[in-house]
Specification:
Among the domains are: about 150 residues, no CATH class; about 100 residues, Serine Threonine Protein Phosphatase 5, Tetratricopeptide repeat; about 60 residues, no CATH class. Helix 5 packs antiparallel against helix 6, helix 8 runs antiparallel to helix 9 and helix 14 packs antiparallel against helix 15. It is globular. The chain is mainly alpha-helical. About 65% of the residues lie in helices and about 0% in strands.
Length: about 475
C-alpha cells in the first residue's frame, strides 16, 4: 500500500472544472486537478513541459514552470489516490513523481502542526518524518532523472532544514544552482533555511545576522532582475518576523511597514495584520487583510484570513442583529472555498466548524471537527479547539477533547485553564480535583499570571454551584484523560 493510501482516511468530492485545452494560467489549480481527475496525463505533462520553455509575464524563466506543481500540494486524499494512479500508469514520469512528492511534503507539515518544537508531540514528529521520507523518495528520483527541476530542490531543501540537516541543505542548494543558476525559488528557499530556528550551531543573533547578510549580498547581485522582485523589502520583512517572534510588536509593525513601502506583498500585509491584532489594533488589521484579498483573492492564506474575518463579522452581526443573513452567508461561502482548497487542513476545518456551530449546524460542525482529527489527533491546540466547539452541543465530547489536550501537553497551564473554565461552566465537580495539578503546573512552569489560590477557587466554585460536591457521589469516567482511539 502506498504512503498516500495509508494516509487517505477520508474521501471528498473533487472540484468540477471543464475545459478543452491545458490550462492557460499556470497557477489555475482547479484546471490542473481536473486534468488529473480525467487521467489525461498527456495534456498534463505536455502543458508542464511547455511552461518550462516560456517565461512568465514578468520575464521569469522558471516561475511559470513551478506554479502548477503547487496545485498538487493539497490534502485531499482523492488527489493522493490520483497521483498514485499517475505514477502507477507512468512510473518513469518525472512530473508525476514531482507532483506526488510535493503532495506528500504538504501532508508532512499538516501532520507536524504549527506549534513550536517543544510543544509538538512525539507522534506528530513521527508522522511528519514518515511522510517526509516518502516525499524524499519521489523528489530525489525526480532530480536524478531531471537535474534542472528546481521545485524538487526547493522542497528537499526545506525538508532537510526542518530535519536539522544543514549539510544536506547546503549540498542541495549547490546542486540546484549548478542546474538552475537563475531560479528565484532556490535563493528564497536558501534564505528560509538560514532562519535561526532551523539551525543549532550559531546563537540566534549571529544566525539572524548571517541570514540578513545573505539577503544583502543577493540583493546587490540580483535586484531588478526578473523573478527577484520579492527581494524588495525582504530584509525588513525578516527583521519584522524576528521582532514578532520576540513579541516586540511595535518594532514588528514598523518593520513590516518598511517592507510594504518597498513592495506591497500579501505575505507582508497578513503578517502585519497579525501584529496589529496582537496589539489590539483591529481596524488596521482588517484593512490589511482586505487589501491582501483585493490583491490576490486566490491565495490560500489570504482566502483563509478573509474567511476568518467575515466569520467574526457574522458573529458580531448576530449579536447586534444587523443584516446577519447576508454577512453570515458570505462567511460560509468563503470558508467553504478555503476548505475545498485544502480539505484536511485542521486550521481550515476548525474555523469552519466554529462558524457552523455558531450557526446552529451542529452535525456539520461535528463532521469538520472529526475530519480535523485526521492530522490533529496528537495536536494539543487542535484538541482544545475541538473541545470549545463541542461545548455548544456535546459537552461529554468536549470534556474528552479538553482532557486529550492536557494529556498531549501536560505541562502547559493554558490547557488546564481552558478545561477548568469548561468544568466551571458545566458545574462539574472534577473542577475541584484539577485545581491542585493546575497549581503544580503553574509553579513548575512560571507561566501563570498570578499565584493559584486553590482554596479560594474551590470556595468560589462551590458558592456559584449552589450545592456541595461533597454531597454527591462522583466517579471519574474510564475515558478520563485518555487519548481518543
Amino acid at each position: 500500500m502506498s504512503p498516500i493510501r495509508r494516509t487517505a482516511l477520508l474521501f471528498l468530492a473533487p472540484i468540477a472544472f471543464v475545459f478543452a485545452l491545458a490550462p492557460a494560467n499556470a497557477s489555475d489549480a482547479p484546471a490542473w486537478l481536473e486534468l488529473l481527475a480525467q487521467r489525461d496525463y498527456d495534456r498534463i505533462e505536455d502543458g508542464l513541459n511547455q511552461l518550462r520553455l516560456e517565461p512568465d509575464a514578468d520575464g521569469c524563466a522558471s516561475c511559470a514552470a513551478m506554479a502548477p506543481y503547487y496545485a498538487f500540494a493539497n490534502s485531499d486524499p482523492v488527489i493522493g489516490q490520483r497521483l498514485d494512479d499517475w505514477v502507477a500508469a507512468r512510473p518513469d514520469s518525472v512530473p508525476a513523481r514531482l507532483a506526488r512528492g510535493l503532495y506528500l511534503d504538504h501532508l508532512s507539515w499538516l501532520a507536524r502542526g504549527d506549534a513550536s518544537a517543544h510543544e509538538t508531540h512525539a507522534r506528530q514528529w513521527e508522522a511528519m518524518y514518515r511522510l517526509q521520507e516518502a516525499a524524499i523518495g519521489d523528489l530525489s528520483w525526480a532530480i536524478a532523472h531531471d537535474r534542472a527541476l528546481s521545485p524538487a530542490y526547493v522542497a528537499l531543501m526545506k525538508i532537510r532544514a526542518a530535519q536539522g540537516n544543514e549539510g544536506a541543505v547546503a549540498e542541495l542548494y549547490g546542486q540546484g544552482l549548478d542546474a538552475n543558476p537563475d531560479s528565484p525559488d532556490l535563493y528564497e528557499a536558501r534564505i528560509w533555511s538560514l532562519s535561526p530556528w532551523w539551525q543549532s550551531r550559531l546563537p540566534w543573533r549571529q544566525a539572524i545576522e548571517r541570514q540578513l547578510a545573505f539577503v544583502a549580498e543577493l540583493t546587490q547581485r540580483r535586484a531588478g532582475q526578473a523573478g527577484f522582485e520579492w527581494l524588495e523589502g525582504y530584509a525588513d520583512f525578516l527583521k519584522a518576523e524576528f521582532f514578532a517572534r520576540d513579541e516586540y510588536f511595535v518594532g514588528a509593525i514598523a518593520a513590516y511597514g518598511s517592507a510594504l513601502q518597498a513592495r506591497e506583498r500579501t505575505a507582508y500585509l497578513l503578517e502585519r495584520a497579525a501584529a496589529y491584532r496582537s496589539t489590539g489594533q483591529y481596524a488596521l488589521a482588517r484593512a490589511d487583510i482586505e487589501r491582501a484579498f483585493a490583491i490576490n483573492p486566490a491565495s490560500k492564506p489570504v482566502l483563509y484570513k478573509m474567511a476568518d474575518l467575515r466569520a467574526d463579522d457574522c458573529r458580531k452581526a448576530r449579536r447586534e442583529e444587523i443584516d446577519s443573513d447576508r454577512i453570515c452567508e458570505e462567511a460560509t461561502s468563503l470558508l467553504d472555498k478555503v476548505v475545498a482548497r485544502d480539505p484536511l487542513n485542521p486550521d481550515y476545518l476548525l474555523r469552519r466548524a466554529t462558524h457552523l456551530s455558531e450557526s446552529g449546524r451542529f452535525e456539520d460542525a461535528r463532521r469538520d471537527a472529526e475530519s480535523a482529527e485526521i492530522y490533529g489527533q496528537f495536536d494539543c491546540s487542535v484538541q482544545a479547539r475541538i473541545g470549545r466547539i463541542y461545548e455548544d452541543f456535546d459537552p461529554p465530547a468536549a470534556k474528552l477533547a479538553y482532557q486529550s489536550a492536557i494529556t498531549l501537553s501536560p505541562t502547559d497551564p493554558v490547557h488546564f485553564d481552558q478545561y477548568l473554565g469548561f468544568l466551571r461552566r458545566t458545574e462539574d465537580c472534577e473542577y475541584l480535583d484539577l485545581l491542585e495539578p493546575y497549581r503544580a503546573v503553574c509553579e513548575q512552569t512560571g507561566k501563570c499570571r498570578s499565584p493559584v489560590d486553590t482554596r479560594a477557587l474551590a470556595r468560589e466554585f462551590q458558592s456559584a454551584r449552589r450545592r456541595s460536591c461533597a454531597a454527591e457521589t462522583w466517579q471519574e469516567p474510564d475515558a478520563s484523560l485518555a487519548m481518543p482511539e
